[in-house]
Design a protein that fits this description.
Helices cover about 20% and strands about 30% of the residues. The chain contains three helices and six strands, in the order E-H-E-E-E-E-H-H-E.
Length: about 110
């Protein structure tokens, strides 16, 4: 089954959003293809060679899940209470094809 990486960007002030967090987490943990999910650590992001950047949002999260298709995953995540409440300012859903690791059916067949 394909694996998808979903990036959420949240508002700078998450105070109101956090009131919906229990419903969001309950919904998220009920997703059958969920592999891992969580917010990025607070602090500066870094790019190669240690140069800091302020171009990335301070409040963001990464969710990794499996699903039948990009359309099916996107439709499922349309039901997320954070998305429905308008707390996700930007959402990027991309199919991800990791060549190595625990989410790969057969790493010996990977071209990488």
């Amino acid at each position: 089954m394909p694996v998808f990486a979903i990036h959420y960007t949240y508002p700078d002030d998450p105070t109101e959003m956090l009131t919906v967090r229990p419903a969001h987490r309950e919904w998220l943990t009920a997703q059958p293809g969920l592999l891992v999910a969580g917010m990025y650590k607070a602090g500066l992001d870094e790019v190669s060679e240690g140069e800091t950047t302020d171009q990335e949002p301070a409040n963001a999260a990464l969710i990794v899940c499996s699903g039948d298709s990009l359309e099916a995953v996107t439709a499922a995540f349309d039901q997320d209470p954070y998305w429905q409440g308008g707390y996700v300012l930007r959402r990027v859903v991309r199919e991800w094809d990791p060549p190595l690791g625990p989410w790969v059916a057969d790493a010996t067949q990977s071209p990488a």
